[in-house]
Amino acid sequence: MNDYIELEGADGVPLRFRLNSDPADLPAMAGNFVCVRRKDGALDVICAGAAGSLQSAAKAWKAAKDKGAEAMYVRLNVAGATRTQELESLVERYRPPQVISEGPSA
């Protein structure tokens, strides 16, 4: 998997995510995350989420990995409203089977 990926939300805005190789190294900062796998040469989003602390995404990673996810990518984003907007756009575009959200105030 690449160190960075860019996913375009339903609103057409590209969002850049950084690979997180180890769930123990997830940052305590707020942000969005996606768990993905390669399928037919493209990225398949298994899980998308927003968290007040990306460390809480470790549980989502375990569940997504059980569903075939190969990598987790994170995007630091302190503003709760922006995290929520980005998550909604990703969910609308990719329709992942797993969505995690701590809400806009997280």
Short description:
The protein is of the alpha+beta class. The chain has helices spanning 57-66, 80-94; strands at 4-8, 14-20, 31-39, 42-51, 71-76, 98-101. It has one domain (4-101): GIY-YIG endonuclease (3-Layer(aba) Sandwich).
Give a description of the structure:
The chain is α+β, with helices and mostly antiparallel strands and 106 residues long. It has a single domain (4-101), classed as GIY-YIG endonuclease (3-Layer(aba) Sandwich), CATH 3.40.1440.10. The chain contains two helices and six strands. It has helices at 57-66, 80-94, and strands at residues 4-8, 14-20, 31-39, 42-51, 71-76, 98-101. A six-stranded mixed sheet has the order 1-2-5-3-4-6, with helices on both faces. A hairpin with a 5-residue loop joins strand 1 (4-8) and strand 2. It is globular, with a radius of gyration of 12 Å. The N and C termini lie far apart (29 Å).
Name given to the CATH architecture: 3-Layer(aba) Sandwich
Strand order of the largest sheet: 1-2-5-3-4-6
Overall tally of structural domains: 1
Number of continuous helical runs: 2
Distance between the termini: 29 Å
- The count of DSSP E runs of length 2 or more, i.e. the number of strands, is 6
Regions with pLDDT < 50 over 5+ consecutive residues?
none
Judged by helices, strands and strand pairing, the structural class is alpha+beta
H and E string = EEEEHEHE
Could you name the key traits of this structure?
106 residues, alpha+beta, GIY-YIG endonuclease, 6-stranded mixed β-sheet, 2 helices, 6 strands, 24% helix, 39% strand, globular
